[in-house]
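User: Could you check the structure of this?
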Amino acid sequence: MQQQRKKYFKRRVHWLLDPWIIGTIVILLLSALPMVLWLASYDSAMAVWMFVITYLSLLVSLLGYIKRSLLEPELVHDKKQSDEALRQIAAHRVRAREEYIQTELEVLARGERTPVLGIWQLNDELKQRHPFFSSLETVLMDPVQQELWIRVKVGKLDWRGGQDRQQIARFLNLVVEFIQVLASDGYLLLLQAYFKTVIIEIYSLKERENELDQPYPIYSSVLTRDGLERFKTVPPVWQNLSVLGQHRFANGADIEPHRGIEGSNISGLL
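Assistant: Sure, the predicted structure tokens are below.
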């Protein structure tokens, strides 16, 4: 631990140059000045010298205690070393992501159906682009059928049945925004040779008496890769959903999904 810490710190010229030490010395010397002036008013040089010698002796002892009580005050942060460490960590993360995607590409090249794009869950920046990324249950690629399946679970709805038009519009706008993020996703672009169609299914939960909540489909869409590309330029309003693909939605009620995608842990990450 000690050796690792020294990699990111370098020694000062002297521990007395620590700002805390300098500040302590200045404050203690200034606080002793009134006493020296008071003793000097008695015209007794001996009294002044005795006080100064005693005070300075105590000051030296006090500085020694302060030095030992501080966490290595003679060390300062070595920015070059820490910056290099951060650069190495960032480079390692990039390599890990590239290796992760490469593994997925190798499986797809063999024609195997496989979970993909687990990087969406591994990378916090990618995950925070849209609320649906935190709710992904399945992201599955079938290179033979040339289809990408995405299943999202959003939890219980408080507007089921179409009573709250604003909530419905807000949900559909979220769907449009999610599709727009997908259309611009660089990692999805790397897999474009293996899919021509994107199926998105969104599930909610409904209560069952004395049983666990049951998922049921509330939204389903089929988009071609060209249709997905067009979402990059459309305004983020729900009216564009029906224009750029096949969409099924019944204001939060049960629908017939296009594929009935099974829920699963995305690439084993959830």
